[in-house]
Amino acid sequence: MTASTDAAATTPMGYGSMRRKEDARFIRGKGRYLDDITLPGMLHSAILRSPYAHARIVSIDTSAAEAHPKVRAVVTGETLTGLGLAWMPTLSHDVQAVLATDKVRFQGQEVAFVVAEDRYAARDALSLIEVEYEPLPAVVDARTALDPGAPVIRDDLDGRTDNHIFDWEAGDAAATDEVFARADVVSTCDMLYPRSHPAPMETCGSIASMDPVSGKLTVYTTTQAPHAHRTVYALVAGLPEHKIQIISPDIGGGFGNKVGIYPGYVCAVVGSIVAGAPVKWVEDRSENLMSTSFARDYHMHGEIAATADGRILGVRVKVLADHGAFNGTAQPSKMPAGLFHVFSGSYDMPAAHCSVTGVYTNKAPGGVAYACSFRITEAVYLVERLVDVLAKDQGWDPAELRMNNLLRSEQFPYTTPLGWEYDSGDYPRTLTLALEKAGYPQLRREQAERRAAYERDGTGTLMGIGLSFFTEAVGAGPRRTMDILGLGMADGAELRVHPTGKAVLRLSCMTQGQGHQTTFAQIVAEELGISPDDIEVVQGDTDQTPFGLGTYGSRSTPVSGAATAMVARKVRERAKIVAAAMLEVSADDLEWEKGAFHVKGDPAAVRTMNEIAMAAHSDLELPEGVEGHLDATCVYNPPNLTYPCGAYVCVVDVDPGTGQVAVRRFVAVDDCGVRINPMIVEGQVHGGLADGIGMALMEVMAFDPDGNHLGASFMDYLLPTSMECPSWELGETVTPSPHHPIGAKGVGESATVGSPPAVVNAVLDAIGVRHADMPLTPAAVWRALRGDPLRTDLAIS
Amino acid sequence: MSTPTRTGTSVSMTVNGKQVDRHVDPRRTLSDFLRRDCGATGVHLGCEHGVCGACTVLLDGRTARSCCTLAVQAQGADITTVEGMADGAELHPLQEAFWKHHGLQCGFCTPGILLTVQELLADNPDPSDEEIREGISGNICRCTGYQFIVDAVRDAAAVLRGEKATEAE
Hints:
The complex is a heterodimer of chains A (797) and B (169). By secondary structure, chain A is of the alpha+beta class. In chain A, 28% of the residues lie in helices and 24% in strands. Chain B is 30% helix and 15% strand. Mean pLDDT of chain B is 94; it is low at 1-5. At the A-B interface, α2 and α17 of A face α2, α3, α4 and α5 of B.
């Protein structure tokens, strides 16, 4: 588990654990996050939000706020209508109100924007704005959204008479029906993946600065996708794209929360234009939880079919997806349910089918966030729960059932019944390692003994063992199938080696703590033999970096990592030509050994990268057509996604008297192919495992029947602390991605995807209940132990 | 925001060893005071309702939620923020250990946790893992899953007890 950290003191010339370059500033308090930035003359702002989930706006009176001595501007939907900005496009071909004009559609929705001299005055002025609302009945439970007579939320859309957003399906329905018809056993389970929130420690914010002289708009903002933001601003605001500069400073965690464009960002731009000064907008925690991108909220009706001897034949699922009041889900354009159709998971099954229906409700927009890899959290939860339900119904061991159905390594590349081509994996080896690390047979024996003691004299806690084997699909993606608002999901890299052999790498992805400044330097180091310490990694500034789609969906290593390796190889090819000129031999006569070219068979005739870099900028005569310098650019359009996998084993103790769950052990074996920096991979996995504990046991965004948000602070929206997390026990197998230039797969979201079902399976295994919905709070577990409702009422009504 | 208000109250305190005298509104939070008036932007705001701990500073040697403290309440106090931990170029052993053990990712919770741990180790120089976890349970981290933070604290405690040499950068 900590094998890597001791090695972290040394700097490798490529892959391996090394200390992070970015830490030097963070541990000194010298990071530069959005709210740390102050521009000359900068003003501050605050947003007035709707107290109602659904209400018609009768009138808005801003006169008292405008009269406040420190207020410089008040922006309403009416102001924005004049600029054509009252509504903005979402990443799902819908529109979202920037500031409400006709009515409000969720509690916390943006109604007015105040620009003032300081943030205290801006907040003061909010209470001076008078808004008259006419409350309307709210749609809160997605299961009633399509009822005849349900209040129509989106009457702004032409001809809209219901709350239906889309129907979408994948897989072969007939083939799936056929395997279900001939199956010996079928298990069915209704489950809710409740609405949660990524809740990064740093909330969202933006500083917009419109220079009236040059007409240039500079926006410092918490964005995971700065280039996409620039293009969207250009398209929406009608500003020329070369006059827009987006700068993403240090980001205090993203987790998918910081992908989209929020109304506050647009308001800051308008505020800067109206007030003639830079305007900072930073939301508070409640605003973050109430109005920015939520995650999950999938109601799933799942079925799994198998033969009597435990061979899985198929999975069938119907999903009702609650998207809130605007369909703002961030995902590839052609995939309204993201990559949910990887739900056949890690198993060799002949058929699978899903249908997904999206509905509007009176809640904030979002859906795809929180390390979900575009709905793979939901897909993995579904199949890993179904496998456990099947095992329980049939009295089978869940580990054995999984092992017997896992794809075998010789089946890769494997095309799933839903059309994905998994690149590689050695699933039985990965699962075997996890079971060995956990001591699975001993755990089952201990469980049996403790259960016997409990049943004999009612003492002790109930022990549960939960498994999850997941296949992720990350690295979106091939541009023929995947785009964001028409922008193909490729990523750029630019590498420049300076005359003295130091280098700068410019990337389109954007770290939010994942360690890119270190790991991407390591990729270049591995390819060119330049020390990672001598490579500066630049991200986040659209004026300085090549175009690309940003960091989310664990796509940085698969796409930008590939681009980095490719651009380094281009530079190496140029270096070869230069070295050949230096040594007065043909390039074909040269051999590369990390950091230098030498003449084949003559290791003494050698030129190092340092020497080559200087020569490339010197008066050295180069072959015709070779311009000198050592730089290159590359755009990487991935041929496929990468498919990392993992086997997780969770052990819990449940207090039957209180329903309290303690996670005693968590064994996680991840296979993400080649590991660039094992220490950083482990840190990524640890963080994701904590997410799994949070989602399984604590986190939920609940609403009351009027649509009031019941989880709008950290007093109510509970995140795991050090007390809920055990000491993680990690393991690894390495099955490289065959199509990736360095064999690496993404991993950042694996643990968040894979761990919730392991925890839930463990708790349900402990209490002997077939299914109960997350979060398995003490109250929920206590109720489930008494045979009470299996679904979390709180989360859906 | 950094303009002193004439109508405000005057406060004096020591911030990282430097005397600071200002006029502030009575309602100005200590966190805003430190961030915006003293330039100590290592003090972070994660919730401003006292739960996350990102704004933790040392006030007369004890941890305080600076978002739930008014600047005027710190009158006469000796404040340490993360900026005051290193001795010039030389990192505090805790900072060194967080670096070595990968106890941070996005870095947003880091300053608050470093100060919480400083208090923890002052009270208990040789904490068990359980005591470390309890000690940092008022600081939320979204990135690390806490394990490497615990490792870092354990290691730093040994260094501070003189049992291990501080590793050079």
